[in-house]
Amino acid sequence: MEVLSVSIDSVFVHKMWNDNELSKMVEGGVPFPMLSDAGGRVGKVYGVFDEDAGVENRGRFLIDPDGAVQGYEVLTPPVGRNIQETLRQIQAFQFVRKSKGKKATPSGWQPGKVSLTPGPDLVGNVWKVWKTSMAFD
Amino acid sequence: MPKEMSVGCARPTGGPVGEGAKKASSKNEKEKEKTAVQEVSPMIQIGKKVPDFTAPGYHQGKFISIQLSEYLGKWVLLCFYPGDFTFV
């Protein structure tokens, strides 16, 4: 999994933010490339650029090895993301891909929890293998 | 993969590349009309390929240039955010 971050700030500002603040939160500084999107040209194409404010919203795109987007989420600026949920989704998509699409992960799935194998035998029988409480535990 | 960039006073920029970008620069009128129509429809569709782009970046003390398609074959988490020093 590779991470790329994008904002409208210049690479010089990225360096200052990393060197003066983020490197004090994360030892060794930001481990992934911090990209600069002047004018929001990339953000516009991804539908996350706020024209009125002139900045990107908190868009998060999960892109598979074929370059296809498997999931995205966009939040307005004041609320931060949930990294645990992002990691869970990545693990779920990787699990499904490894099964070559044979498996599916029900609501609340996490590594080690029961997955589903859709097919004729499962129709109407999900209740036998999956309980609603599993969406919450 | 990412190329190191030389740095001058001009602010380096990136932008979309690939089919959409090629059409935008086409001088053919019909192509232009097509581009205008395409701009209305959302470019991100779940399960479909994302638009490629290039962008300058900062990584571990170096200024670099990155093209998203260099990451084909790997999972990528692409995160946009409002700006450096914006608290959250």
How are the secondary structure elements laid out?
The complex is a heterodimer of chains A (137) and B (88).
Chain A: E1 2-7, H1 11-25, E2 34-36, H2 41-45, E3 49-50, E4 55-56, E5 58-63, E6 69-75, H3 83-98, H4 126-129
Parallel strand pairs in A: 1-2
Antiparallel strand pairs in A: 3-4, 5-6
Chain B: E1 3-4, E2 15-17, H1 19-24, H2 29-40, E3 52-59, E4 62-67, E5 76-80
Antiparallel strand pairs in B: 1-4, 2-3, 3-4
Biggest sheet strand line-up of chain B: 1-4-3-2
Q: What distance separates the N and C termini of chain A?
A: 26 Å
Number of continuous helical runs of chain B: 2
Rg of chain A from C-alpha positions? 19 Å
Q: Please indicate the percent range of residues of chain B in DSSP E strands (runs of 2 or more).
A: 25-35%
Structure description:
Chain A is α+β, with helices and mostly antiparallel strands and 137 residues long. Chain A is 29% helix and 19% strand. Chain A has helices at 11-25, 41-45, 83-98, 126-129; strands at 2-7, 34-36, 49-50, 55-56, 58-63, 69-75. The longest helix of chain A is centred in the middle third of the chain and has 16 residues, at 83-98. Chain A is elongated, with a radius of gyration of 19 Å. Chain A starts with a strand and ends in an 8-residue tail after the last helix. The mean pLDDT of chain A is 96. With 88 residues, chain B is of the alpha+beta class. Chain B has one domain. Chain B is built from 2 helices and 5 strands, in the order ββααβββ. Chain B has a 4-stranded antiparallel β-sheet with strand order 1-4-3-2. The chains are: A alpha+beta (137), B alpha+beta (88). Chains A and B meet through β1, α1, β2, α2 and β4 of A and β3, β4 and β5 of B. β1 of chain A pairs parallel with β5 of chain B, so a sheet runs across the interface.
